[in-house]
Every structure is written in structure tokens, then in C-alpha cells.
Amino acid sequence: MDFDLVCVNDGSTDDTLPRLLEARKQHPQVSIVDFSRNFGKEAAMSAGLQHAGGDAVIIMDADLQHPPETIPRLVAAWREGYDVVLAKRNSRDGDTLSKKLSANLFYKIHNMLTEHPIPAGVGISAC
Questions:
Q1: Which secondary structure element, helix H or strand E, spans residue 85, and what is its range?
Q2: Cα 81 to Cα 57: distance, rounded to the nearest angstrom
């Protein structure tokens, strides 16, 4: 299947940008959005979505907390006709107590404010 890979460098101070530039030389489907500083996860996701093309988008963090191995299952579900496909964590065992509490608070607040609730623990989506 044809695909594009949009990578957003959210103000990283390590060697992320040179690595992305090298990857783009070998893989023309890689495009890069490079921020001058860290604007936060939401801004990075919005920028990635603005630069994305195609029929479907999968949003994932680069730190591998969202395993790339789930991509074929997300695509398969989308091809079955689902408009939105969500992936849910099996566990939060590795998270600190404050991370667990802030995640739970996020889902509660988000779900109170929207017509489209997100089940707790959902971390990646395809649409």
C-alpha cells in the first residue's frame, strides 16, 4: 500500500532532525515538519495532520509507547469500513501514579466536554 510518513520534530535538541533528514534521503515518503521549539503534543499532532494526505491517518508517538506493530491491525479494521479505529493499552503498569492520575483526569474531562468520548486508555487512533 502507498503511504506517507509525516514526522514532526517538536523542538528536539538531540540528533532527531539529522536522522530524519537522512531517512528522507532513503525513503521519499518521509516528510518532516520541524518546529523551532517545543510547542507541545497537541500542536505537533495538529501540524502533522495538516501535512498528512491520503485516505487515512494514524497518529503515533515516536518514543514507541505506541507500538508500530499495531499499524496492520488498525489498517485492517479501517479497511473493514470503520471511520475511526482506536487502540487501547493493555496496562499502565509502567506508569507513575501521577501519570495514571493525570491520564484518568484527561479522559474524564475530555469525555465531559465532547460528543465523541474516548475510552480510557486509548492512545493511538486511525481515521
A1: strand 85-88
A2: 14
